[in-house]
Amino acid sequence: MSTNTKPKNTSAYMAQAAIAFAVSLFGTGAGIAYLPLDGWQRAFLAMSGLFLVTSCFTLAKVVRDQQETQSLIGRIDEARLEQLIAEHNPFKSVS
Predict the structure, then answer these.
(1) Residue 8 has what pLDDT?
(2) What is the tens place of the pLDDT at every residue in 39-76?
(3) Which of 17, 23, 45, 66 has the highest CB neighbour number within 10 Å of its CB?
(4) Rounded Cα gap, residues 85 and 87, in angstroms
């Protein structure tokens, strides 16, 4: 039987993810700022980078929500099965 505890991320993992995000965002911004391009080309790259970041957040949220939904459905099915097993009496006479 499974437990209903949710896996938790460690603080080191959270820090590593935040640092990686900050470094990559800063690197992209600095790269766009120092490229020998016109203003509209820099603006296009910046807008594309921003869209990429926001779409990554949205995708991560959708994947997380889908996983949580599947987990909830599994727990409901498990509870129904346990209820059926608890109510089943193999020695009950059929009349």
Answers:
(1) 81
(2) 999 999 999 999 999 999 999 999 988 888 878 777 77
(3) 45
(4) 5
Task: Name the one residue in this structure whose structure tokens are 């980078």.
Answer: 49
What is the band of 35 on the pLDDT scale with cuts at 50, 70, 90? very high
Task: Provide the residue range defining the domain that includes 17.
Answer: 12-87
User: How many independent structural domains does the chain possess?
Assistant: 1
Tell me whether residue 20 is in a domain: yes
Is the CB of residue 32 less than 8 Å from the CB of residue 42? yes
- Please identify which residue in the block is written with the tokens 């089943």: 88
In a domain, 58, yes or no: yes
Neighbours of 3 (CB within 10 A): 5
Could you tell me if residue 6 is inside a domain?
Answer: no
In a domain, 93, yes or no: no
Provide the mean pLDDT of the chain.
85
Cβ 32 vs Cβ 46: under 8 Å: yes
